[in-house]
Amino acid sequence: MSQTLHAPSPMTRAMELAADQANIISRRQLYGLGVTRSQLRAQLVARRWRRCLSQSISITTGPLTVEARRWVAVFEGGPRGFLDGSAALLAAGLEGFTADAIRVSVPRGARVRRTAGLNVRQTRRWQADDVAAGSGPPRARPEVAAVRAALWAKSAKQAALLVTLAVQQGLTSVELLASELLRIRRDKRRVLLGELVLELAGGVRSWVSWSSPGSAGVEVCRSLPGRLVGAGAVVTTTSTHSGSRSRWPSRSTASITSRRPPSSTMR
Known about the structure:
The chain is of the alpha+beta class. It has three domains: about 10-65, no CATH class; about 65-140, no CATH class; about 175-265, no CATH class. Helix content is about 40%, strand content about 15%. The strands form three sheets. The chain has a three-stranded antiparallel beta sheet with strand order 1-3-2. The chain has a three-stranded mixed beta sheet with strand order 4-5-6. A hairpin with a 3-residue loop joins strand 2 (about 50) and strand 3 (about 55-60). It starts with 9 loop residues before the first helix and ends in a 9-residue tail after the last strand.
């Protein structure tokens, strides 16, 4: 006896997709699966589903989970939006920090929808390959998120906290942070972050032994404007072939002189 296999209906496929997204589905996804506006309206009128802001639908009527709110935030940002900054770090598992709003980054020219608890912003630093691989709401890679969270933090103290927590909790590494920091050409906290990355590397002595010529570590050192202070030391190097002295680590031998800056100079 033969059996006829029927393809799942659009409503069934929509329910399955929403189940993988913390019970949230976007209007764009619904229509793309073939759910009609009248079918959506019927579910909302019957109160089986409910609207979440302007772009999302919850297939349940209970309170939204943290994961569900993140999906709603991303959908509100549009098809190219993704969690960024502290929101991306929290989605990656960061502990010991809470954010006032969920940050979603979109490229220049994208539509920005504003609502309480959601911070959708256009950014010139948006790149498609900044998105982390894996399941869950689209989010920036931890090293990208940590650097941007520091740039967007309310204070230098909060910036240092976010970067330090990301490294200490194993979300990213100092080397990845250093590479990401090289993308930042102009920002008031660029020097602060460079110094912080050096300090997180375990001090200048560890940094010199860890780095190699041409590495991100050395490039960060060279990018700092005329000083290397954050790790509490000044690095000078003596060339073994020319006798010249350089301020930055190279193939030559490095000497380290401790020189803690006064507290008044720290940001």
